[in-house]
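assembly run, all chains below
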Amino acid sequence: MGEINRYSIGEFSEKTGVSIRTLHYYDEIGLLQPEKHPSSGHRIYKHQDILTLQKIVSLKFLGYSLEKITNLLHQSIITVDLNETLALQLEVLKKDKERIEQSMTTIQRVIKVLEEEGGVDSAILFSLIHSMQTESIQNEWLERHNLTVVVEKLSKKTEKEKITLDKTFIQMAKEVKKLYGKPIQDQEVQKMIKAFIEASFEFLGDDLVQQLADAEVEELDIQELENLAPSPFTEDEQKWLNQAMEYYMKEAGME
Amino acid sequence: MGEINRYSIGEFSEKTGVSIRTLHYYDEIGLLQPEKHPSSGHRIYKHQDILTLQKIVSLKFLGYSLEKITNLLHQSIITVDLNETLALQLEVLKKDKERIEQSMTTIQRVIKVLEEEGGVDSAILFSLIHSMQTESIQNEWLERHNLTVVVEKLSKKTEKEKITLDKTFIQMAKEVKKLYGKPIQDQEVQKMIKAFIEASFEFLGDDLVQQLADAEVEELDIQELENLAPSPFTEDEQKWLNQAMEYYMKEAGME
DNA sequence: TATAAGACCTCACGTAACTGGAGGTTCAAG
DNA sequence: CTTGAACCTCCAGTTACGTGAGGTCTTATA
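ok done. output:
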């Protein structure tokens, strides 16, 4: 094409860094429609098109959809609408950011756990991951049942303490899977249950455990919680564990 | 369906919070294929499917594509591969987060500027947005031309100072657009140029401005920079501005 | 037991923002 | 005048589903 202020699509693509195919697409959806050579049909881009494309790229970067951008560009008084939508856009980005951050901390915790624990049964691992992800929903559940104290207590725990809890949980789960099948009165089994219950007490504190035990929760709600935080055990393992715990409670003279 | 451990798709959807259509889709792509009633073709989900679905949801949350998840699930020893890919996934999320953060600060700066400046010509606004976005690329350009000092100086500026610079830039651009057409020797025009140059000196410091002036930069590189940071002016406005500045330089006895 | 409501089935198109390829036309250089 | 690069249009595919049509199956009630 050669002439100044008149670019072929190839030159224009080169200059702006936007692919030819994308420029075709923008033309197709009416976002950026350059002049066309009347006989050949070749696109002719001009200086103004560079400016328009820069607007498009900018708005895209800010998170606007191409459809919104099309509308924004066709209104000449952009600033008015922009001013309103910017705040909205900021909110959207904030939520995206939070989601990403949560995924990142989850991954980091999983990596830590894998590093320090080595091979972990995948059921255990996913149970852990899932419960991390639904932490906020679990908190909602607790608050609905007047257990805000627990939520507060948990939120005060540092990242390190949480990893410690993760590890405790994993070790306990591993042991359950190892010991499963033995009679529930078995010394080793009862020792494991004891260790687990003591760890829980230590983490939450006696008073909170008591509150949790006292809380009146209906069967249906328990179901709901179980869906939120899936057990890493098979149904049989779970049954066995429950029996072993009941036995322990009786022996220890708890209710 | 009614029976325990056998759920119709509707029940299963209810229980897990995953839409029926999504379950259909997961079946279709071989991600989660429940038993089917031989005559009716109705899907029958069981307890194991809940666990599988939870794995799927977890991995999806961590940012994996359904295709990857399919592979991960079909390998029974998940933890090995997971351990490797988690780190990669973390990197991807990090980049996403950075992009989002940059968009957020850009939007915040734009909002601030709009608040304090009111109506702004859209060309000016987009020129500003665009240059914010390409800040890192502009820094690369500067570093390539041995102007790392400038980059360092700029990086030390606080967010507030940057907003001040934005506003200076906008006011100057507004005035250029207002005064455009007047003779370049006009007092008002020359006053504006003076104000602008002084503001630049103040922001960067005399020494840096000198360095920038001394830097040997080729025409082609200048072109490149212009593509990175588009001028908010029309070509005519730009020409007029250049002439006015040259006149000012001569008058002020600068080179 | 007949019937109607509701749950389920498959098929197929639509979404966003492109990318890639096939097959044909135009341009620029030799 | 030829040839190869650049360009054109049209079609298909991508992800993770949503939506709706039109037909079948189950379940509750009359």
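Chain B is about 75% helix and 0% strand.

Chain B has a mean pLDDT of 84.

not gonna interpret more than that til we talk
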